Amino acid sequence: MTTSSRGSKVPAVLVLEDGRTFRGRAYGAVGTTFGEAVFSTGMTGYQETLTDPSYHRQVVVMTAPHVGNTGVNDEDPESRRIWVAGYVVRDPARIPSNWRSRRSLDEELAAQGVVGISGIDTRALTRHLRERGAMRVGIFSGDSLPDEGAMLAEVRRAPEMKGADLSAEVATKETYVVPAIGEKKFTVAAIDLGIKGMTPHRMAERGIEVHVLPATATAEDVFAVNPDGVFFSNGPGDPSTADHPVSVMREVLSRKTPLFGICFGNQILGRALGFGTYKLKYGHRGINQPVQDRTTGKVEVTAHNHGFAVDAPLEGATDTPYGRVEVSHVCLNDNVVEGLQLLDQPAFSVQYHPEAAAGPHDAAYLFDRFVTLMEGQRA
Predict the structure, then answer these.
(1) Which helix (DSSP H) or strand (DSSP E) does residue 275 occupy?
(2) Active site residue 306
(3) Average pLDDT, whole number, for the chain?
């Protein structure tokens, strides 16, 4: 049960599963919510963050102190709804100001039933998560709050992200088509594991007709569209639970169809090739993560949203049932695997978001690389 906090001084409490608490004011909807506490370092692009399905069941802490300055518009959402489980900000904008703004951020959060909290020390909270790691959290708001012991018990009963199978919960239920912009050059089957709207648009800009398929799509469904290439999207949850997408990807690899995966799709490729995955202590989130493309030596500033990573050797090529593979991209902050590339067939993936919504455009070339693979296969 949620109500709006707009224009009020409704008390709110954030409770972490290790017992640390922060008291502030309700922001967005008034009520109770649970999820995994994570922080995002982006100073802009909050609307794209909120509507990114990869944040399903996560409570996002914004490290930027001022949030909501540009309000909410109807052009920037990356999916049909807000997916974050909760939202944490320090100083929300009192009055939004932007020529595209249609309503305030807190109005939008309240309208979609998203419980948030404001007026807390998000720097202290971020430092705590940085030291202790991402963990379960609850936000409680309203005039009658339980005592802290009762709130903590509720938080500790909430489900963990490790072992969570979430992609089917956020993916489309029915196949839809995003037509090519201009001349159609290729057809791509895109497996929706939590896809953002800008991703098929970036492909459409390159003359690709994109058939977006549900997460439950079979290999037969994929090849029924006669694709020139197959794409596996970003998405939420633990990749160790994604047995069905892994089996579909192995069929794509067996047919040597050009393949591109991002974020969750990178983890799926890792598993399909025989690598393990593991949970990062606090993950990578935000639009300023430095990654090196080892194939060119170029360093990119990239947009991330992942709490899991592929466990693959950073040096040299590894033999797999589908040929040799090497780590193509690596995060310069912590040496986490950020990309994989097969050397003997047309398949690659990255752990971040090249669609630049929101975020830098450094990685847009990856869609061109996918086009090059399909051109090569056709030739």
Answers:
(1) none
(2) no
(3) 94
* Structural contact between residues 75 and 51, judged by C-beta atoms closer than 8 angstroms: no
The enclosing H or E element of 329 equals: strand 323-331
| pTM beyond cutoff 0.85 | yes
User: Is the Cβ–Cβ distance between 4 and 26 less than 8 Å?
Assistant: no
DSSP, res 234: -
pLDDT single digits (tens) 291-343: 999 999 999 999 889 999 999 999 999 999 999 999 999 999 999 999 999 99
Tokens (6 digits) for 358: 């929101």
Q: How far apart, in whole angstroms, are the C-alpha atoms of residue 310 and residue 242?
A: 13
Give per-residue pLDDT as tens, 173-216.
Answer: 999 999 999 999 999 999 999 999 999 999 999 999 999 999 99
**Residue 154 DSSP class:** H
Kindly name the residue from 56, 128, 306, 353 that is annotated as catalytic.
353
What does the alpha-carbon distance between residue 127 and residue 131 come to, in Å, rounded to a whole number? 6
Task: Supply the DSSP string of 65-102, one letter for each residue.
Answer: SEE-TT-B-SS--SSSS--BSEEE-SEE-SS---TT--
Residue 300 backbone phi and psi in degrees, to 5: -115, 145
Q: Residue 89 is encoded by which pair of tokens? A: 């900000």
To the query of whether residue 263 is one of the catalytic residues in this protein, the response is yes
Q: How many residues does the structure list for the chain? A: 379
SS3 assignment, position 189: strand
Closest CA to 225 of 253, 250, 257: 257
User: Cβ(330)–Cβ(281) under 8 Å?
Assistant: no
304: Cβ contacts below 8 Å, ≥ 6 apart:
283, 284, 285, 286, 287, 289, 351, 352, 353
Cα 237 to Cα 176: distance, rounded to the nearest angstrom: 23
Q: What is the pLDDT of residues 61-75, one digit of tens each?
A: 999 999 999 999 999
pLDDT at 3: 59
pLDDT value for 286: 85
Q: Does the annotation count 331 as an active-site position?
A: no
**Neighbour tally for 64: CB within 10 Å:** 17
Q: What are phi and psi of 242, to 5 degrees?
A: -90, 55
Active-site position among 263, 284, 329, 331: 263
- Local structure of residue 181 (DSSP, 8 states): S
* Confidence (pLDDT) at 124: 97
